[in-house]
Amino acid sequence: MPTDASDTRSALQQMAARTLIWIVGVVGTVAALIGAGEAALGLRALWGSQRLAVGLALLAVSGAGWLLCRAGRARLATTLILGGTLIALVAHAAHIGLGVHTVILAAGALVIALGGGVAGNAAAAVLTVLYLGAIGVLAAMEAQGLLLGLSAPRQPQLLDRLVAHFLIATSGLASALLLNRILGTALTRAIGEEARLARLVQAAHNWAWEADAKFRVTMLSEEFEALSGHKREDFLRMGEPGGAMLVRDADFPSLLEDIRAKRAYRDRINGFRAPDGRLLWTLSSGEPVFDANGNHLGWRGVSHNITGERLALQQHQRTANMLDRVLRASPDAICVAHMEDGRIRFANSGFCALVGLSRDELMGHSGRELGLWPDSGEPRRLAAELAASGIVRDFRSALLVHGEWRDVLVSAATLDWEGEPATMLIARDITERERARIEAEAILDHASVGIALTRGERFERVNRHWQEIFGGTEPRLADGHTCLPSAQEVASAALAFERDFIRPDGRRITVQFNARGLPATLAGRSEGRVDQDCDHATLWVAEDVTERRRQERELQAAKQQAEGASHAKSAFLATMSHEIRTPLNGVLGLARLLQQAGPDERRPQYLAHLVAAAESLNEIVSNVLDLSKIEAGHLELETIEFDLHALAQAGFEGCAALGRERGLDMQIELAPGLPRLVVGDPLRVRQIMANFLVNALKFTERGHIRLKLSSAGEGRIRIVVADSGIGVPLELQSRLFRPFAQADDSTTRRFGGTGLGLSICRELATRMQGRVGVQSDGANGSSFWAELALPTALTIDDTAARKRIPMPPRHPLAGQRLLVAEDNPVNRLIITALLQRLGAEVVEAEDGEEAVRLAREQAGRLDGVLMDLHMPKVDGLKATQLLRADPVTAQLPIHAFTAAVLDQERQAALAAGMNGFIAKPVAEDEVIRVLGRQP
To answer: Residues 9-34: pLDDT tens digits?
Structure first.
């Protein structure tokens, strides 16, 4: 489409030039043929040759104009053709001998005007000059008598003719100027109107189109692709192979009728299918186009993309139709009532059958008007539940139908029905089912024995006496399995047997069962349920045959259970008493020796033994706490990247020195292919490794101990501690990893220990997706192993790994100023000394009140707080809450410094605003780990 006046004028000039070329070419061809014929036949041979020359000249002019038009020089082509036409007129005047007196020369004005209107004012001026020049040449030839058939002209008459031709030329020029002005103004106005209409179409998100008389699309505006999402060329080839196709839907016949009648149409929905299969739905308006003679040329119009709305409407209609079919075909009674007045708007055949009324009798009436709900209490209760939740399921009610009450189970939901709020009710008639249930329950509840009906593995119905016997529905043995045979076992024959059963309240009874298989039809299937496992129903009769035997077995079991619990308790308390008192005696004794001893050489030895005894006591307590965490499910594992090689070396060296002092050959082997950096909980891995090594040291008096780490497959590590000690008997290996278990009592007396370490190792390995075990022939050494899931962190060589892992600094807490809040002076002394040794500056507080005051006074200079939970005046939780409520100290890191081990105490600390925990007795590595990562 032309976009401005210049483009449109150029197009018109091209069209005019082609038309003139065709006309001049035809005239030249006719003249050349006539002249050639006259020359050939000898008829006026001179005239024939002249006509042939004129015809050839016109053909040459038309050919030159065609070349110029091809080159885009339409104006020059038009000027050339019209100039050639003037020359032809002058040549004709000279040919017939009339000269300036030839009447046809007056057509020069028309040629000049045509040239100005088509090719512009410059072309009109050139043609005017050419015309006047040609007239001058004719006048000169006439004056010299060169034209045949004329005598010497009379001067006045020649001058009159010249003046007339001048007037003709000037009038042609003036007409050209006027025509060019009129055409330019009209063209500019038409272009402006076209642009305005195009903007209106674009603003309305429409696109314009044109089609020929056969309704083949010939033009689509530039907005088409952006507004429709389709390619223009696909729709310009509509109906052709590879082009778009009209969808022959329900609206297509009316569109076809409008096209055949050649009448305008408005807001017609048309569908098109693109070559890629996508649909385009449009809202179109079009009108026919006729020429001046009333001939139908084609169509033009505008369209709007409504694909999204159309597809949504179709989906809505499909959903609505499907819902309507479901509602009408459902066996349940379904009706829709207006929310405000309760009047029925819809009722399916199931509802009509339930209430015994036709659809016409129901429509427009409420349930109360129809007498279905004489009491308004239940409808109000249903409406209240519906208003509260928007949907109600299994609402038990009753309807009065022709004087008879019908029990129904109602489900309801709110919905929009034809633009109004409404309620959909789905009712199921359970009258017969309820009647049968009540009758059966009455019979069963008055029976003197327990009766139950099972189908497959499920209990369908039991009577009251059955529940009294078993304390529930399904009897189960002590191991959790059902005490009843399967339905297949009972289906073939009647069974009678006795079983011992433990009730949910703990009482044991002996019950005699009689069972008989029944056909499924006699048992009565639950409505609407189909289950292949329920083909066989079984009737059970249970009777308590001996109360005395039940009481005796219950008392005997209780006695055995009490004795076993007492023995386990006594054994554990005796073991723990010995294990705790031994290091505790060492701590107290060595402490007294240190009080009394002077500055002699034995003080370091006393201190070393004191630390060892305290660590032994701490290990016992830690094991007990770890076991309690494991049993309570509160043990948490870290998942961090650590150096497995360094961990193994450090753990091994801690025990190797003691082993070498005792003359043992201590060996460590890190197998080839063992990854260095792995992901897991390094503390728990080290705990497993250390427990194995300590056990090996405990039970090996001579020989060797070897620690070996190797890869056990993708992401798994195998740890093995082999020794040449006393070994583990084969019959005791299966219970070695149980809590409180050792090889025998003599082992405890000889080597000590609580028997908790290996059981903790097993639980830790299980939580790390691994396992533990032992290999021993019972006499010559043993090999304890653990296989753990420790995925490789990344693959690097050993040198790079060593460069990646920095050595710990001597003063890891240097530059930190910490506040310690602890009411116990000994604990405060210990943690203060440790923090100062690690490079920190310490501020001390004796209770929570003082801690809050110091923290507020030194808020800008403190890097963290260690807060005991249990302190006088203000405890640690309250102090933390006060600091978190103060904007000055709200972001100050606070860590619990506590011996609390219960999960609820830790949760309370986190809820109060604490950031972490440092457990008592304090460990240096834990202090560095917690405080070293502070911002």
So the answer is: 666 667 777 777 777 777 778 777 87
d(CA 557, CA 545) in angstroms, rounded, equals 19
- Per-residue confidence at 528, pLDDT binned at 50, 70, 90? very low
Cβ-proximal residues to 609 (8 Å cutoff; 6+ apart), any chain: 586, 590
* Residue corresponding to tokens 């219970």: 735
Token pair recorded at residue 673: 């292919």
Amino acid at 56: L
- Residue at 912: amino acid letter: A
Peptide bond into 253 cis (omega under 30): no
In CATH, 817-931 is 3.30.565.10: no
Q: Is the pLDDT of residue 631 over 70?
A: no
**Planar angle of CA 89, 91, 93, nearest 5 degrees:** 70
566 dihedral zone (left: phi>0; alpha: psi -120 to 50; beta): alpha
DSSP designation for 153: P
Instruction: Categorize the per-residue pLDDT at 850 as very low, low, confident or very high, splitting at 50, 70 and 90.
Output: very high
If you average pLDDT over every residue of the chain, what do you get? 77
Instruction: Show the beta-strand stretches assigned E in 503-620.
Output: 508-519, 536-544
Q: What is the H or E stretch that residue 392 is in?
A: strand 391-401
| Three-state SS at 607 | helix
The span from the CA of 751 to the CA of 431, in Å, is 77
At 919, phi and psi to the nearest 5?
Answer: -85, 150
| Maximum Cα–Cα distance across the chain | 170
Q: In CATH, what class is 636-804?
A: alpha beta
Residue 458, both tokens: 């499920």
Reading the block at residue 398, the tokens are 């009753």
The token pair that represents 701 in the structure block: 């008096």
Q: DSSP class of residue 385?
A: H
Looking at 72-228, which runs of residues are DSSP E strands?
Answer: 206-212, 217-220
Amino acid in position 340: E
Which of 447-451, 919-923, 931-935 reaches the highest mean pLDDT? Answer: 447-451
CATH fold of the domain at 204-312: Beta-Lactamase (3.30.450)
Q: Which CATH superfamily is domain 433-523+534-545 in?
A: PAS domain (3.30.450.20)
- Residue 338 sits at the vertex; the CA angle it makes with 334 and 341, to the nearest 5 degrees, is 125
SS3 767: helix
Domain extent listing, the chain:
5-184, 204-312, 330-429, 433-523+534-545, 636-804, 817-931
Q: Cβ neighbours of residue 394 under 8 Å, at least 6 residues apart? A: 409, 410, 411
Report the range out of 109-123, 317-331, 631-645, 878-892 with the highest average pLDDT.
878-892
Residue 682 tokens, joined: 């390094």
- 235: three-class secondary structure by DSSP: helix
Q: Backbone phi, then psi, for 398, in 5-degree steps?
A: -145, 140
pLDDT tens sequence across 417-468: 877 888 888 888 888 888 887 877 777 778 878 888 877 767 777 888 888 7
**Is 414:422 a contact under the CB 8 Å cutoff?**
yes
The pLDDT value recorded for residue 164 is 59
List phi, psi (to 5°) of 586.
-65, -40
* Class in CATH terms, 330-429: alpha beta
Measure the CA–CA gap between 763 and 768, rounded to whole angstroms: 9
- Which of the given ranges, 4-8, 167-171, 920-924, has the highest pLDDT on average? 920-924
Read off the DSSP letter of residue 733: G
675: cis peptide before it, omega within 30°?
no
Same fold? 433-523+534-545, 817-931? no
Give the Å distances, CA to CA, from 488 to 76, 529, 648.
Answer: 107, 20, 59
> What is the SS3 assignment for 549?
helix
